[in-house]
Design brief:
By secondary structure, this protein is an all-alpha fold. The protein has 21 helices and two strands. It has a two-stranded antiparallel ribbon with strand order 1-2. The protein is globular.
Length: about 525
């Protein structure tokens, strides 16, 4: 009896426990048995979710530090808009490569726990260098700081999502992702609303010293995120020991040779992604001065309006994620998102309607697109290519942001903000055209990307009925069986953001649900 928690010893003569019961008993006595401390209880997981949400708070607060102080930085450092936009390009350039290599580093080199600590430390150091650049009145040092900061930003988000998959896979995963995104946008919003006030609240002999003080507030947020990384590492290791989980690797490899097999649908998703987001983030980085110049707003009002995209997404991301899960129709929602964002930019460019309306619309559309676009990747490529697909998608997005940020700065310096808005509208038109083409291509293949939730569920059930078969559920089977590729769209969708997802082993039930003994937690 008790074979459920036993395994054959090397000589095959007896059985030994899979886990050390003495250690588990130490952890599960006293407070360890309470709902607050037991990893088997929901309350403990929700407490850990708070630390997961704050893991990237410092990164998102600091990412838009330049946008919150655009005019101040340009005046003190005596740089034009093109040079100012380098602070964003230098963040994106390292992530062109790290979007592909980051998963490998987290999986095979550092592991999730140490990876989160290392990348949080890199962000912490990068923000220190950025602030010291202001302290020494050196824009070059500030640029170096932003480059170092970029080395950690994207991969910390990957580690954050990996923790979410490990602790909340199943019905609660969308909720966890939604809350993480909301907290991330909270960091961006707090930055937009408070950083200039912090600069104005202090008095030093030199303005660049006031700038440095404001930027050092970001260092404190990054330090708190690093603290959260240590907390998560400890409790994730404790949870793995108590529940006998293995979180060391996903078994997934990014294979550049897979690129030649990518379908047209995936390349269209890449184009939609980059042409949409280059009309959002570079605009926000320059938005404060735009609102002051065109709408004659005060600096504080301009900062608030510019933060509305992030502020709206705080609640909208979670609610719209539920809506898209309930309705399906991903392509329809992507078309609506792009068209709505195009209308918002058009209002800003060609009318004097209050920018509050335009930015609220842009915030809702931005949140809706994120909920509808990214999961579609898991429906158009085979499971074994998902790591490469998501890595390449993020790399292309960062490449686009790096290039467009510089182009945006040049346009503002030479042509002005009206031409910049026309440029953003042109990018959104390309995104809208590619989405229509994707709709046509997908319709010719059965229309899976635009199925309703009920249609998709019926489709997945029919596929699972064909593909499912009884399988032996033992530890020995798990270790010896060859890996197979899941065939159903449910299994693919279960790999949402698969660069950090759970890898289904041969022992699954045909619906993407992992069986407890044969598939311990494996993360990237």
């Amino acid at each position: 009896m008790g074979g459920k928690n036993m395994i054959n010893s090397e000589d095959g003569s007896d059985l030994k426990p899979l886990i050390d019961s003495d250690k588990v008993e130490d952890d599960m006595c006293g407070c360890g048995q309470s709902a607050f401390c037991s990893p088997k209880r929901g309350l403990h997981r929700y407490v850990m979710l708070i630390f997961m949400c704050f893991l990237s708070f410092g990164s998102y607060f600091c990412y838009d530090n330049p946008a919150a102080l655009q005019s101040t930085i340009q005046r003190i450092m005596d740089v034009d808009t093109e040079q100012f936009e380098l602070l964003y390009s230098l963040y994106s350039w390292p992530n062109v490569a790290l979007s592909i290599l980051g998963g490998f580093l987290l999986d095979r080199v550092f592991g999730i726990r140490w990876g989160a600590i290392i990348f949080a430390s890199i962000i912490f150091v990068g923000q220190i260098i950025f602030a010291l650049g202001a302290q020494f009145n050196s824009f070059l040092i500030m640029e170096i700081g932003r480059f170092v900061f970029g080395l950690g930003g994207e991969n910390l988000a990957v580690a954050q999502n990996a923790y979410a998959v490990s602790w909340f896979k199943g019905r609660e995963l969308n909720m966890a992702f939604g809350l993480q995104l909301s907290f991330a946008r909270m960091g961006s919003t707090v930055n937009m609303l408070t950083l200039e006030s912090t600069y104005n609240a202090v008095s030093f002999d030199k303005d660049y010293q006031r700038l440095a003080f404001a930027l050092f507030t970001g260092v404190m947020y990054c330090l708190f995120s690093l603290f959260c990384a240590f907390v998560l590492s400890y409790f994730d290791k404790r949870r793995s020991r108590i529940l006998n989980l293995d979180a060391t690797n996903t078994g997934e490899v990014v294979r550049l040779r897979d690129i030649k097999d990518f379908p047209l649908s995936l390349w269209l998703l890449f184009i939609i992604c980059v042409t949409y987001y280059v009309a959002i983030f570079p605009f926000i980085s320059l938005g404060t001065v735009f609102f002051v110049d065109k709408f004659e707003m005060s600096s504080s009002s301009a900062h608030f309006v510019n933060s509305l995209v992030y502020l709206i997404s705080l609640g909208a991301s979670f609610l719209l994620g539920i809506m898209t899960d309930k309705t399906g129709l991903n392509l329809f929602w992507v078309i609506i998102s792009i068209f709505g964002t195009l209308v918002a930019h058009g209002m800003l460019a060609f009318t004097w309607i209050t920018p509050y309306a335009s930015m609220v619309l842009m915030g809702v559309m931005y949140s809706l697109l994120a909920c509808a676009l990214w999961p579609m990747v898991a429906l158009v490529v085979p499971e074994h290519q998902l790591g490469t697909a998501y890595g390449l998608m993020q790399a292309i997005q960062n490449l686009g942001l790096a290039i467009i940020s510089m182009i945006a700065g040049i346009i503002v310096d030479t042509k002005g903000y009206l031409v910049l808005e026309v440029f953003f509208c042109a990018n959104l038109c390309v995104a809208l055209f590619c989405t229509v083409v994707l709709y046509i291509v997908d319709s010719g293949k059965g229309g899976l990307l635009n199925f309703t939730a009920k249609e998709r569920e019926a489709h997945l059930e029919s596929l699972s009925n064909v593909s499912s078969a009884p399988k032996e559920n033992t530890v020995e089977t798990y270790t010896r069986s060859p890996r197979i590729t899941p065939r159903t769209a449910s299994e693919l969708r279960g790999r949402y953001l698969s660069t950090i997802g759970v890898y289904p082993t041969p022992d699954h039930d045909g619906l993407g649900r992992l069986l407890p003994l044969s598939c311990p937690h494996q993360l990237k």
